[in-house]
Every structure is written in structure tokens, then in C-alpha cells.
Specification:
heterodimer, A: 285 residues, mainly alpha, 11 helices, B: 289 residues, alpha/beta, eight-stranded parallel β-barrel, two-stranded antiparallel ribbon, 42% helix, 19% strand, globular
């Protein structure tokens, strides 16, 4: 039986099932490849690397903004950054690159964060993530694109053949087929888009969020810069709840356009609740 | 002198904090200065597999000890099997360094007391505690460290004093001793004993873990005042003094944990307190040679 000779409704059912099978197979293949083994990589505590897992170089750079603003080395007013004249020793390379580009680009946040030197510093700082299996290598990214493209071409190709056959037979009611093809293209674009983290990286980020969640307002005084960077790295904007200046600075570095070519993962998520009580002797009164 | 003091403490003893959600970021950000964390087991009895994985990942970086608060070991009532199973799961699934519980009872007659209570220090409670420790060990797979608790009431019906009671339980059961120095100090000052003398009467060779904490003075019912071990204040100098004395008398490796349950100071203050504990214990070690 030639599937291309199936009547319209029957072919649409076949095409949907065929596309689903190919799509699930492609997704499953890539998911298994990125999942990693049962071993547990060491716990990350570098806030730049944690932020990279959440959202790539942009998020790593935004954590650097939090650090610099908290230490009085940078000011962010809406979407403009102004570096102070102080340049202390011991800055992280990402922080140094950020401050340098504030002068080079006139301080527009989007330009500063996307500067080549800033992205290069972020990539260098987060290179260990690839060795740990937490972030995909360039080869793994290419494989993802190739697998998704081949699967997509297969599905779309079958649709195109049916379109040609239908048109040759004088059929014009092909809108549903075209819609399914568009959906297929969208799906395989989503499957094939580059990721900032592997399955192992996703679990690492989830574990960090679990360990850091449940923060209440019980700490006297302000957390240290290191702690604030961890919050921002793991949770994004919501991790800075209660610290208005830092939230405003973080929000001021939001990209102008939604989505990026490598965007994956949200830039913010809520802090989960967490239990925690002490065993204070006879209890407090 | 500083280098000698540091060398006497670091290779053998460990210093850490009680894990609290509010302290989590500070602990992770300063893990190079923290050797161990102690986690309240009861808060995680229903931990999902994903949560257990997170603890397992943490324990691979910083040794963790699960600290129970609701078993009610020091009771003539058998400990509830489901609680032992829960602790066993936590210890087994997270690669923990060990577990501990209190020498207290927490329920009786179907009533949950809601806090740690000191039982009568009698033969019955000694036998009950030892029986419960014997029940717990094969299920959890490790012997616990058992902790002395603070009490505002000298338990009626007691035949022996606290040091004798603790020594009997530890010697008979073979359990390790988690010595809470603030609890020891509070009980001593509240009931007219000498804290150092009380310390000397304990089986110090069995101490593996040490707790440090703070409290506050509250009015006593008949006038005067009592020291409440509330874990909401800094460790007092007297407790650091007891730690120094312990370091002099107990040559074995010690794990010292500072407990803070609320009103948290800036994390730098907790790190400073931990450093003070290092110096206090090292001073005792230096004095023992």
C-alpha cells in the first residue's frame, strides 16, 4: 500500500502518528545521550557556573553585575551601567571584562553583556562544566542540531511528497497538512536548539535549588556578596527578593528581545519552601 | 603560636554548623571553612528521591550527620519502627557520616510532648534507652551518638545524677556520646553544680561529637533565674572554656558543631564563632601535651 495514495483524513492520521513517532524517537535519543551516567559530579558552588547552567553566558554575566553592584563598583540605572573609578584587585575575569566594556560601549547594558570579551570570559569560566558533563560540548550541540534536522527533514519531506501528490490529483484542501508540517518544523526546531546544560546539569541545578530554597528573612543584616550571587545564580530575579537595589540592577540587564539563539531554561523561578526546625533543648519561650 | 595552635586543631578535629535553610547559602559559599554539617533528620523523613540525591551530592562535598529529635530514645516505650526506617533511609541513601539522637523522651500515654523532656534518671530509663539503642542499630546500620539534653526541671523519681545516668547508658549500650556543652553548662548552673566537675564525671573517651550553642536567662518560678538553652544566642565564653577543658582531657578526634536555630547573625559572625571554637579546642590540645 502506498501511503501517499491514502485519502486525506486517513493520511492526516498516518502523518500525525508518523511525525509523533519520529519526534519522540529523536527527542528520546538526544535525552538519553545528554542524561549522563549514574555518577554524581561534585556540587557546584561557583555562582557563574551555576548561572550558566540556568541560562548561558548572559546569566553568568548578570551574576557578575549583582556582585559588582553589591560591592559598589557598578551602578545600574534602568538599562545603563556606570562603572566607578575604583578597580580593586582580585576581580573575577567576568567582572573585569564587564567593567572594561562599560567604558568601551558607553554603558548600555545590552551591549556590555553581549560584548565579545564578556562572553569569552563567561565561556572560559564555565569550560569546566563541559568536562564535568554538566554542559554540552560543541560536538554534542552539533549532534543535536543534526539529529533534529534529519528527523525534521524526514517528517517534512513526507508531507511535501503528499502535498505534491495531492495537488497533482487536483486536491486543494491541504491546509491541515500544512498546519501539521508547520507544527513539525516548530517541534524539531525546539528539539534541536542548543542547550546550556545536559541532563546531569539539569539535575545539578535542581539539587542546588533544593539546597538553597526555603530561605526565610531570619538572617540579621544583609547576606554577603557571595551568598547574594548564589541566590541570583540559582534563581535569577526571584533569588534577590527583598534586595531592591540588586533586583533593579538585575532587571536592568534584562535582554531587550525575548529569547536568544541559545536560550534554554528560565531566568527566574520561585524559591521553594523548605522545612527546617531546630532541636533547641527545652524549646524557646 | 598561631601556627602551633592551628596545627594542633586542624589535622584531627572537625568544625561545622547545624544546617538550616537560612544558613544554606552561607554554608555553600564558605564550604572551605566548614568541615561538617548536621541536618535535622525529622525535617526530611518524607524526602523524595530527588531530595535525597541533593543531600547525597552535598555529603560528597561536606560530611553530613543526621540529627534526630523525635525518636524518644530515653524512654521505657519502644521507639517507633517507622521513625527508625526513616532515619535508616536518610543515612543509607545520602552517604552520611553518621547519626545522632537525644537522651530524652518525647511522648507518653499517647501524648506528644512537643519538645525534648528529661526522664527520671532511673534504672528503668537506663534500660529503656539501651533497649532502644539496641533496636535502632541494626535497622539504621550504625550506632548513634546520644546527646545529653538541657532541662529546666530536675526530673523527679531519679535515683542517680546526670553524669552517672549518661555514663550507664553509654557504657552499657556502646553508643557514642554527643556532648552538648551548653546543655551541660545550663544544667550545672541551674541546679547548683560545677560545670567543670560535671564534665570530668562524664565518659569523655566516648565523646565523638560536641555541640556548642547559646541561651538566655529567664525568671525561675520561685525567684532567681534559670538558663534556657534556646539556640538563639551566641555561644557564651564559659562554654568555650568547657571546650578547652574537653580538648585537654579527650585526645580523640572531635567533631564540633555550632547550633543556631534562629535570630541568625551575619554569616561572618558564625564563621568567627567557629574559628573561636577552633582556637578553644586547640588551646586544650596544647595544654594536654
Amino acid at each position: 500500500m502506498n501511503v501517499f495514495d491514502l485519502p486525506g483524513p486517513e493520511f492526516l492520521q498516518f502523518y500525525f502518528a508518523f511525525g509523533a513517532v519520529v519526534g519522540i524517537a529523536a527527542w528520546a535519543f538526544l535525552w538519553a545521550a545528554s542524561r549522563g551516567g549514574g555518577r554524581l559530579p561534585p556540587l557546584l558552588t561557583d555562582p557563574f557556573q551555576i548561572a550558566w547552567l540556568r541560562g548561558g553566558p548572559l546569566e553568568a554575566a548578570r551574576v557578575a553585575v549583582v556582585s559588582l553592584v553589591d560591592r559598589g563598583l557598578l551602578q545600574v540605572e534602568r538599562s545603563r551601567m556606570t562603572a566607578t573609578s575604583r578597580r580593586p584587585r582580585g576581580l573575577h575575569p567576568i567582572e573585569s571584562a564587564l567593567l572594561a566594556n562599560c567604558f568601551n560601549t558607553g554603558g548600555e547594558a545590552a551591549k556590555v553583556l553581549s560584548a565579545a570579551s564578556v562572553r569569552a570570559a563567561c565561556r572560559a569560566a564555565c569550560e569546566p562544566l563541559i568536562r564535568l558533563g554538566l554542559a554540552p560540548s560543541d560536538e554534542e550541540q552539533r549532534r543535536r542540531v543534526v539529529v533534529a534536522a534529519l528527523a525534521g527533514l524526514l517528517v517534512v519531506g513526507v508531507g511535501i511528497v503528499k502535498l505534491v501528490v495531492a495537488i497533482q490529483h487536483g486536491r486543494s484542501n491541504v491546509i491541515f497538512l500544512i498546519v501539521l508540517m508547520i507544527v513539525a518544523v516548530g517541534f524539531f526546531f525546539w528539539v534541536g536548539r542548543p542547550r546550556w546544560r545536559t541532563g546531569q546539569g539539569k539535575r545539578m541545578l535542581a539539587d542546588l535549588r533544593r539546597l538553597l530554597s526555603g530561605r526565610k528573612s531570619g538572617i540579621r543584616g544583609k547576606p554577603t556578596t557571595s551568598e547574594l550571587m548564589l541566590f541570583a545564580a540559582a534563581f535569577g530575579l526571584s533569588g534577590l527578593a527583598g534586595y531592591t537595589e540588586l533586583q533593579a540592577a538585575y532587571a536592568g540587564t534584562r535582554p531587550q528581545s525575548s529569547g536568544s539563539s541559545c536560550g534554554s531554561g528560565s531566568s527566574s523561578s520561585g524559591c521553594g519552601g523548605g522545612g527546617g526546625g531546630g532541636c533547641g533543648g527545652c524549646g524557646s519561650s | 603560636m598561631g601556627a602551633v595552635v592551628a596545627a594542633a586543631a586542624e589535622p584531627r578535629d572537625r568544625f561545622g554548623l547545624g544546617w538550616r535553610p537560612e544558613l544554606a547559602p552561607g554554608i555553600l559559599a564558605h564550604r572551605d571553612r566548614i568541615d561538617v554539617v548536621e541536618i535535622i533528620a525529622d525535617d526530611h523523613f518524607r524526602a523524595s528521591r530527588a531530595e535525597l540525591r541533593a543531600w547525597r551530592r552535598l555529603s560528597a562535598e561536606i560530611p553530613i550527620v543526621w540529627h534526630g529529635i523525635s525518636l524518644g530514645l530515653a524512654s521505657t516505650l519502644p521507639v517507633e519502627p517507622h521513625r527508625l526506617d526513616a532515619i535508616a533511609r536518610l543515612v543509607g541513601e545520602t552517604g552520611a557520616a553518621g547519626w545522632s539522637e537525644h537522651l530524652a523522651f518525647v511522648r507518653a500515654g499517647g501524648v506528644e510532648i512537643g519538645h525534648l523532656a528529661a526522664p527520671p534518671r532511673s534504672t528503668a530509663s537506663i534500660e529503656g534507652a539501651c533497649a532502644n539503642i539496641d533496636r535502632a542499630r541494626p535497622i539504621i546500620g550504625a550506632m548513634p551518638s546520644v546527646e545529653n539534653i538541657a532541662t529546666l526541671i530536675d526530673p523527679p523519681g531519679s535515683d542517680v545524677d546526670e553524669p552517672q545516668w549518661i555514663t550507664s547508658i553509654v557504657d552499657t549500650s556502646g553508643a557514642g556520646l554527643l556532648l552538648d556543652l551548653h546543655n551541660l553548662y545550663a544544667n550545672a548552673v541551674n541546679f547548683g553544680a560545677n560545670p567543670v566537675a560535671s564534665l570530668h564525671r562524664l565518659p569523655l573517651h566516648r565523646v565523638g561529637i560536641v555541640h556548642l550553642a547559646g541561651g538566655r536567662w529567664i525568671p525561675a518560678p520561685n525567684g532567681g533565674r534559670r538558663l534556657l538553652d534556646d539556640h538563639l544566642h551566641a555561644v557564651p565564653p564559659e562554654v568555650f572554656g568547657l571546650l578547652t577543658e574537653l580538648g585537654r582531657l579527650a585526645p580523640q578526634k572531635l567533631t564540633v558543631i555550632i547550633e543556631r536555630d534562629g535570630d541568625y547573625p551575619p554569616f561572618a559572625d558564625l564563621m568567627a564563632e567557629l574559628d573561636r571554637a577552633r582556637r578553644a579546642l586547640a588551646a586544650g590540645r596544647a595544654g594536654s601535651t
